[in-house]
Amino acid sequence: MFNYINRGPIPSLKSGSSKKTIPIILVANEDLKKWQQSLSNNQQSWLKLNDFNATSGEILLFIANNGAVDFVAAGMGENNSSTIEQDPIEPWLFSKIAKSVPKGTYQISNILNDRDANSAAFGWAMAHYKFSVYLKETKQKLSILTVPKNCDINFVSHMVRGSTLCRDLVNTPTCHMGPDDLGEVSKSLAREFKAKITIITGAALLKAGFNTIHTVGRAAEKEPRLIDITWGNQKAPKITLVGKGVCFDTGGLDIKPSNSMLNMKKDMGGAAHVLGLGQMIMEAGLNVRLRILIPAVENNISANAFRPGDIIKSYHGTTIEIGNTDAEGRLVLCDALALASEENPDLLMDFATLTGAARVALGTDVPPYFTDDQSLNSELLSRSKNQCDPLWPLPLYDPYKELLSSSIADLNNVASTGLGGAITAALFLKHFVPKTIPWIHFDVYAWNDRERPGRPKGGEAMGIRSVFDYLATKFKS
Fold this sequence. Notes:
Elements: E1 13-14, E2 22-27, H1 32-37, H2 41-49, E3 59-63, E4 69-75, H3 91-100, E5 105-108, H4 114-126, E6 144-146, H5 153-171, H6 179-192, E7 196-201, H7 203-208, H8 211-217, E8 225-232, E9 238-243, E10 245-249, H9 258-261, H10 269-284, E11 289-299, E12 311-313, E13 319-321, H11 329-341, E14 347-352, H12 356-362, E15 368-370, H13 374-387, E16 392-393, E17 411-412, H14 421-430, E18 439-443, E19 447-448, E20 458-459, H15 464-474
Parallel strand pairs: 1-6, 2-4, 2-5, 5-6, 9-11, 9-14, 10-11, 13-17, 14-18, 15-16
Antiparallel strand pairs: 3-4, 7-8, 8-11, 12-13, 15-18, 19-20
Helix pairs in contact: 3-4, 4-5, 5-10, 8-11, 10-15, 13-15
């Protein structure tokens, strides 16, 4: 198993100042003419010769007499002036700059606010992310950013390491990230932060009443398990994270077509998210009693695989008719959510790669979330904007719950229609959480379908920076 837990410094970021640091001047499109007038005649000629238009991520190197880089002009695009308070500058702009400049040590000369200073550092660091554990050649150009003085480098480092952990876990193929491996990573994280961990495995799940977790995972060679991590002051507010840990999803007997199985190593993306977010919380030493619950399974096919039409009695006591074995994520989550609810946490959140319907509704970059708590909804939208970490609310429309009805059980695990699938899946989960508990469900994609600076194709952390920003503000140590 690879070593995924890292608490070391971020190699591409440094504090302090140096005479050898190369300045980067951010230039918004609307400020270009004014800035150009501040340059020498030779510099203005160089600008025109290279047709620099300050488009987003465009850079132009200005060379000193000795042949070294004197300073860098970096375009910010339109409506992103660095001289007035505007919308946050996206971290990915700085990822693009970091990948474009020559190897060296840089500083950004004209960032005004703390938020954008943090964004610059995060984007610069993530520009250097590469999942390379299976590659012989792992060397890459390292450009170093001397972070702005108003950058909270500790806060940024927590987010970088947590996001990296999440990406690494999602990127690892199931041959090295099955339920047992996910358990070992959880043990490593617990050891690192002196947290308590228990793992219930195989037949012991049935004895404890976690029938849905066991049923989904029983056909796999690697036994299903429920991972339970607790950390922090027992008297502090209780924050519980639940993550879907389906380490591979064939679809079960309702088997997926082969092209739909290609990325199913990422179906444990919810588990990766809560472990990454959990690392951020524990590193920051937030004043919370943290609990992380991960039902870890493989949805495989063998002689004892569960079938369409089967009925399972959940840990909650609700009986569930199986309408489709490929809607397994909600089955493993419902037992974990019911367990989490027993201690009435002050905030309960689950992350899951749950539905294709969420991608149809909002695309691959914007995860929907569901909550009835309007205060939480408002906070998340605000943090999402500040962190440039897209999230968007969808409704828990109660009349759709009747679509989950069954004539022979309390619920069906799928709706009678494919329409509104992200909502009906969320309503299924809502059934297992008492109304008195503040609860949020995140339906994440956990994947980048295309290559972009700072966001390579592969596993992605979605929404956890927004959540961490909210928790870090509310529960400072």
